[in-house]
Each structure stands twice: as structure tokens, then as C-alpha cells.
Design a protein that fits this description.
The protein is 27% helix and 38% strand. It is an alpha+beta fold and 135 residues long. The protein has a seven-stranded antiparallel sheet.
Length: 135
Amino acid sequence: MPEIRWKLHLASSPEAIYELLSTDEGRAEFWAESAVERDGAVEFAFPNGWRTQSRVLAAEEPRRFALDYLGSTTTFELEPDGDGGTDLTLSAEGDAETLAGWVSVLLALKAAADFGVDLRNHDPARSWTQGYCDN
């Protein structure tokens, strides 16, 4: 599979971004309806009823968080931007659908972190399965 690599600039600090990525409450603010970690694995639950479990591979506060997500090592690298914000680099493997999915996740992360806004619709009838990008 080809490598996916996205960069995202956030006004929020690496510490704030790391908290969103690494905590149950943080992930539920932008990524999944729930994303509870137990025994080193995160159980993601999405609006359409789909569930997946991802093993945490690295948790290096506040610089790096990595998961085995959908069979791919997915890594979030966080670097201070020198002005209080964060330059995030996501790397993973995937296909065209996965590529688009990460754009959706990253923009939802930016909205939650920098603006306190949840871009998702939380409607099982209007999920990724039906072609909606605002899960």
C-alpha cells in the first residue's frame, strides 16, 4: 500500500493536541463517537455502528502518538511551531478512501482543537458509509 503523509498546522499547543489524540475524551471530541483505551488498545465506535480496535504503539507525550489503525502503523508527530502552535505530521498506509478519511479526521481535529467546534453530524443515517464526510 502507498504511504499517506499529511501535514497540518494548528494554533493549539503540542500538549493540547497530544491530549486530544491520547485520551478517551479527546478522541471522542473529533474522531469517533467513543474511543476508549483498555489494556493498551483503543476501541473505536463510529456513528454507523462500525467498531475497530487499535493497539497503541507509542505514547510519547507531547511529541508522538502511534496506533496500529486498520492494519497500518499510524503515527502522529507533533512539533512546536515556535509561536505556541503545532505542526502535526500524520503518516500511515492506505488507499484513496483512507487518504480522504484522514483529511476528514485531521480537519475535525483542527476544528475541535483550535475553534471548539465539532464538524461531525453524529447521524448514523448520514455517515461515511453513505458518502458523507462529516460523520
